[in-house]
Specification:
The protein is an alpha+beta fold. Helix 2 packs antiparallel against helix 3. It is elongated, with a radius of gyration of 35 Å. InterPro entries: Tad_N. This is Putative Flp pilus-assembly TadG-like N-terminal domain-containing protein.
């Protein structure tokens, strides 16, 4: 008995192998932590994958939110093109968006990993997504992409649940993102004109349009023009117009080039009627080497340089020389306040339908008869068209500049095509191109455009090539007619450098 008690005492006091107990316990904890790190890593990876997908879908959809009537449907289609994978979460390994057919109430056989909600503005801290949600394409400025919840089970940690007496670690991953689109037109002539419903510049390239000043009384109709930024808050404070005011400021904003205005947002602009006291056609016509009225004396100012091709069919009135052959540059050849029709040159023609009066504001792009007259008058009867590949008047204008290579465009004519009043032409041939805000002045704006208005949505910024000097009808105040050819859309996601230095760009970004 004493021997047994002694053995028990020795065993109780024996410390040999004690570390094995702690090692075993530590090993269990260590393996548990390793298993937990695997599971946490899988959860983190799933969340990263879902967030990346949410960001991509939101950006793709936001890129289509231009305010047009089909903006939301195009955004949904763009979202459907984005696919991704999630590796560890439940619910399969592919991620995709599918728009649920409203006629399919139960959504049978339709699976979408993300829900898109369109927003009129970014929600404030006190607002929810539902507070700012909209289904109107014209108001949809942002999109919220919410990826459905994906469960991530604890595959490795589950082994230790029975040993540790705790529930299996299970996590869930979800993600959301908000993105928006801004189309900004920076350093452009602050002009707008009303376009017909459904108008797209890309479908009207080469079409002539007669843009006429819109009055402050009656509602504006297609073809009426007005001005942007009535409060002049968009004037570039580092450009040539910064220190001007009144009529001289208007003259600069509409006639100068480079660094004129800050950026206009296509989502909404402020407008005013196209009638202004003290405003006349001469402001636009410096582009044609014509320095009249308020623009007199600016011919040596490079901010008001003319285009490199100023063929217009108008010359200085000179009673002592009926042919008025221009010989070299100099003030003697400035048109000034006296002008006359050129005896042997003409400007680019209007669409033929304007000549027979079968169209009023918008033409059809057919100028074939006028083109024959242009070639015969400027290049000689019976002479083959020197630029047969030029389709539009703008193409023809550029072809003439290229062929001249800095020299005279026309020879033995009253006009050479080069400036004779200004000492040098602008280096940019797009000096005769205006970027104009195209606005639907009827139904889609939600209100009839009339007089001065704020936050008017722009359908697109349109590039208009001036084909002839701007004219006035002699009324008081005079009503101006701007004849131009539509040469494309500036709201196409790229940037275009025009005669005003203007840049139009899409800005798609994540906000949250």
């Amino acid at each position: 008995m004493a021997r047994i008690r002694e053995s028990i005492r020795r065993f109780a006091q024996d410390e040999d192998g004690t570390i094995l107990v702690f090692f075993g316990m530590s090993l269990v904890i260590l393996f548990g932590l390793v298993a937990l790190s695997f599971d946490l890593g899988r959860l983190g990876s799933t969340r990263s994958e879902l967030q990346s997908y949410a960001d991509s879908v939101a950006l793709a959809a936001a890129g289509e939110l231009d305010g047009n009537s089909d903006a939301i449907s195009r955004a949904n289609s763009a979202a459907a093109l984005v696919s991704d994978t999630q590796t560890f979460g439940a619910g399969g390994h592919s991620l995709g968006y599918a728009e649920i057919d409203p006629d399919n109430a139960d959504g049978a056989d339709v699976v979408s990993d993300v829900t898109l909600t369109y927003l009129s503005r970014l929600p404030k801290d006190t607002e929810t997504i539902a507070d700012v949600a909209t289904t109107e394409p014209a108001k949809a400025a942002f999109v919220h992409a919410a990826v459905a919840r994906h469960d991530v089970s604890a595959t490795f940690a589950a082994v230790f649940t029975t040993l540790g007496g705790f529930d299996a670690f299970d996590g869930s991953a979800e993600a959301d993102a908000i993105a928006g689109l801004e189309i900004q037109a920076c350093d452009v002539t602050p002009l707008m004109f009303c376009v017909p419903p459904g108008f797209k510049a890309s479908a009207n390239i080469g079409t002539m349009v007669r843009i006429r000043a819109g009055g402050s009384g009656a509602a504006w109709g297609p073809g009426d023009f007005g001005f942007l930024d009535p409060d002049k808050i968009k004037v570039d404070d580092e450009g040539p117009c910064a220190k001007l005011n009144g009529a001289h400021l208007d003259a600069c904003l509409l006639g100068a080039q480079q660094s004129i205005t800050q950026c206009f947002n296509q989502r909404g602009v402020d407008t005013e009627p196209g009638q202004k006291e003290g405003l006349n056609a001469s402001i636009f016509n410096v582009r044609f080497d014509m320095y009249q009225a308020i623009m007199n004396g600016l011919s040596n100012d490079e901010d008001y340089a003319p285009a490199p091709n100023v063929i217009k069919g108008i010359i200085k009135k000179d009673p002592g020389n009926s042919s008025n052959q221009n010989q070299g540059q100099g003030k003697a050849n400035c048109i000034g306040e006296a002008e006359q029709v050129s005896p042997d040159t003409v400007g680019l023609p209007r669409d033929d339908c304007f000549m027979d009066k079968s169209c009023d504001r918008f033409g059809d792009g057919d100028w074939s008869e006028g083109r024959e007259t242009y070639v015969a008058t400027n290049y000689g009867a019976g002479v083959d068209d020197p630029h047969p590949d030029a389709v539009t008047r703008y193409d023809y204008y550029l072809a003439e500049i290229k062929a001249a290579a800095g020299g005279e465009i026309l020879t033995d004519r009253a006009e050479t095509g080069l400036p004779t009043c200004a000492p040098a032409a602008s280096s940019n041939p797009d000096r005769r191109v205006l970027i104009v805000a195209g606005i639907d002045c009827s139904a889609e704006t939600g209100a009839v455009i009339k007089g001065a208005m704020s936050d008017v949505p722009v359908k697109e910024f349109v590039k208009v090539f001036l084909t002839e000097p701007v004219g006035e009808d002699g009324s008081t105040p005079p009503v101006m007619d701007i004849w131009g050819e539509i040469i494309g859309s500036a709201s196409d996601g790229g940037s275009e450098d025009t005669g005003t230095g203007g840049i139009v760009r899409d800005v798609v970004q994540l906000y949250r």
